[in-house]
Specification:
The chain is mainly alpha-helical and about 200 residues long. The protein has 2 domains: about 10-55, Homeodomain-like (Arc Repressor Mutant, subunit A); about 65-200, Tetracycline Repressor, domain 2, CATH 1.10.357. It contains 10 helices and no strands. It has helices at about 20-35, 40-45, 50-55, 60-80, 90-105, 110-120, 125-150, 160-180, 180-185, 190-200. Helix 1 (about 20-35) crosses helix 4 (about 60-80). The N and C termini lie far apart (about 50 Å).
């Protein structure tokens, strides 16, 4: 069995809707063939719908891939980023943010497959990378920066840069350990990274 066959979108939409079938089929093709190698014809075959049906929901391949990014990322980070502000004690909150990200990304084959496609195609299709950045990293950085500003006792001089360091370290960890096989060469337990980040921020 192809490993992709066991993957299913984490979606609030019923699995029998045509739009969900299209996104499910598109995910299989994008992850298998890459962005450049994906065509609407291949997606239609994989999804079991006509190409015209796809165009009735999505204007072109780019809009289809954007919808896929949004569906996969927002479904995982909705509970994390749904509030307008972060609250709680610093150590507890930072640990929670880190553990949620590492659990929902580092241990998720579907999400890692999406990240591989984005990284591989980023030079030719920069809009994909920008959309991922806006959906996940930028939103997280904004919320965490606001939180740091509300906690003057932390003594953080540049809240935005510190928030970037925090989330950037988590993204880097996942890319190095899971995508470029760092865990096979020089594994680093996630707990050590999280502990060190919290120690650095709390000073």
């Amino acid at each position: 069995m192809n490993s992709l066959e066991s993957i299913s979108l984490n979606s609030n939409q019923p699995s029998n809707t045509k739009q969900h079938k299209i996104l499910q089929g598109a995910m299989q093709v994008f992850f298998r063939d890459g962005y450049a190698g994906t065509s609407m014809d291949r997606v239609a075959i994989e999804a079991g719908v006509s190409k015209q049906t796809i165009y009735s929901y999505f204007h072109d391949k780019e809009s289809l891939f954007k919808a896929l990014i949004e569906q996969i990322t927002i479904a995982r980070f909705h509970t994390l980023f749904e509030s307008k502000e972060l609250c709680g004690e610093p150590e507890q909150l930072l640990r929670q943010l880190a553990e949620i990200y590492l659990l929902k990304v580092g241990e998720d084959r579907e999400y890692l497959s999406l990240l591989r496609v984005i990284i591989a195609e980023s030079s030719r299709f920069p809009e994909m990378s920008k959309l991922y950045y806006q959906t996940v990293i930028q939103r997280g950085r904004q919320l965490l920066s606001q939180y740091f500003d509300s906690r003057p006792e932390l003594g953080i001089k540049d809240s935005e840069a510190t928030a970037h360091i925090f989330f950037g370290s988590l993204v880097s960890y996942v890319v190095v350990q899971e995508i470029i096989h760092g865990k096979e060469i020089m594994p680093l337990p996630a707990q050590r990274l999280v502990d060190s980040l919290i120690d650095l921020i709390q000073g």
